[in-house]
């Protein structure tokens, strides 16, 4: 009898850059899926040997340096774009990326981020938007939805007290030194593939020396949202994407 196992072909597996160490992510968190996106894109572009990552403070720091086998450095809270600027200028041939959460980039680090955009630094930023401060207890973040309940907005975020949610790639797209700005998600297989394409485009802009690339990942935080992992998928589709539409907001081959 023919051994059927000889006809079996491996079609997928763990990316080579994905380390076997365990991450710190909660069940249902999408950061682990995003980790795979990052690994696959870096491998497919062939830039692992010259990739340098800068991790923000929070959940974005807790997983990436421990699970992605490239050079990493930790940063003071919100200062990843400033440190990335220095590294890129010292090592211009390196592929330098920052991985930052909504609090790290959008609150304490907004000044560093905006100044990097104003300067038109040749960097790539992966922005993780789960609409809450995940590590420190589920407080309101700059990206928290209107009406969304958090530990610091128990009645829901309101305009009069807390203002409006921050739209990062739309903001970045207005800056002349930005070559690529997009928003994606990984809550479905189809969107996983679209996210890979967006991140690959953003990194390619840096490789080609065109300008800054920013990709936002809308992602789930089951503990912060008070939902089960599967419920989070519906919440993304029905609530998050209503406020944060997916797509490209800027894609140019030349910046001023």
Overview of the structural elements:
This protein has 256 residues and is an alpha/beta fold. It has a single domain, classed as 3-Layer(aba) Sandwich (Rossmann fold). The protein is built from ten helices and nine strands. It has a seven-stranded mixed beta sheet with strand order 2-1-3-4-8-7-9, sandwiched between helices. Strands 5-6 form a two-stranded antiparallel ribbon. Strand 7, helix 8 (189-207) and strand 8 form a beta-alpha-beta unit. The N and C termini lie far apart (67 Å). The model has no long low-confidence stretch (mean pLDDT 93).
Q: Which terms would index this structure?
A:
7-stranded mixed beta sheet, 256 residues, Rossmann fold, 10 helices, 9 strands, alpha/beta, 39% helix, two-stranded antiparallel sheet
Short description:
The chain is α/β, with parallel strands linked by helices and about 260 residues long.
Write the layout of secondary structure elements.
Layout: H1 31-45, E1 51-55, H2 59-67, E2 71-74, H3 80-90, E3 95-101, H4 102-108, H5 110-119, E4 124-129, E5 132-133, E6 139-140, H6 159-162, H7 168-173, E7 178-185, H8 189-207, E8 212-218, H9 222-225, H10 229-243, E9 247-251
Parallel strand pairs: 1-2, 1-3, 3-4, 4-8, 7-8
Antiparallel strand pairs: 5-6, 7-9
Helix pairs in contact: 1-8, 3-5, 4-5
